[in-house]
Specification:
Number of strands: 12
Order of helices and strands: EEEHEHEHEHEEEHHHHHHHEEEH
CATH topology of the largest domain: Rossmann fold
CATH class of the largest domain: Alpha Beta
Shape: globular
Strand content: 15-25%
CATH architecture of the largest domain: 3-Layer(aba) Sandwich
Radius of gyration: 20 Å
Structural class: alpha/beta
Length: 359
Amino acid sequence: MTEVIRVGGGKGYDVAVGRGLLDDAGQFLGAVGGARKALVVSDSNVWPLYGKKAEKLFRETGMKTLSFVFEAGEKSKTLETFGRILDAAAAEKLTRSDVIVALGGGVTGDLAGFASAVYLRGVRCVQIPTTLLAAVDSSVGGKTGVDLPAGKNLAGAFHRPSLVLCDTSTLDTLPDAQYRSGCAEVIKYGMIGSEDFLRKLIARPVSEAPEEVISFCVRMKKDVVEKDEFDVGCRMLLNFGHTFGHAAELLSGYSISHGEGVAAGMATVTRAAVKFGICDGASLELLLSALEKYNLPRVIPFRVPEMRSAVLSDKKNIGGELKLIVPEKAGKCAIRGIDPASVGKWISAGRTSGWNRQK
């Protein structure tokens, strides 16, 4: 059964969640009515699995379907790849009435979304996430962008999709490491908004009810994004674990995945919050239990000085103040402005020795 979640505010859009949507999603494509061409952007892992199916879906609506496939991985999330997508769109003479389609995980969604935001100053975008992480988080909300040598997601734009299709059958081919990476973002939603949801994740694996889990996370994100589309207020709560997590990703040369970084980042900031008397120890233990359940890392492997330097290059450093998302208890986090000079203290307080990353 398909659930359709409407994200409102401005030009709203639908997020459809269900199994087999790539086989039968014609009824949703009215959101891109009038498009004559669809440029499908995908990576070298996803395209062989679902590229032809996506092409067929859009072709059946009368669109000419074109493709752009890039080398899979975070290292492709660059201005160079972004420029190549724009060149492909221009070579195919896409117009403002046409559509760019993101078929894949978070890297694909960010690249294709950014290209659709910039090409001709904005064309429509359809997000088709094929990873758990993209389904519950990056495909919804309109954040797009690429990495710079100085840090993650430092260039980008807000650009709403016209439609998001979450076909949960694509999760069947998801490698275990990517599944676990998505589970980190799912756990994040429990920590920022629902202790009950967090406990359910420990009691029952995400894989047993992916549609239910994805819909819950999308509804929570929808509520936040409708209040704060441009990430200047409550939407910052969705960055729980990301400040330290992004720094770990950068320092690893992106050998640490986004989900692994977020997992270790959540554990680090929560340990520090407990040590500073902001959060209770029981909430920390609940978080660590959830991370352990999904074989996610609980420790960042880098030294404090290098972590501090990487953190201070992050875009969350605003006006000389770092916006850090700090848990007060399981299911409730707060946005705290901290002095950049105290970043090292937070990292030190949240550290334990060792690196327990799962292979």
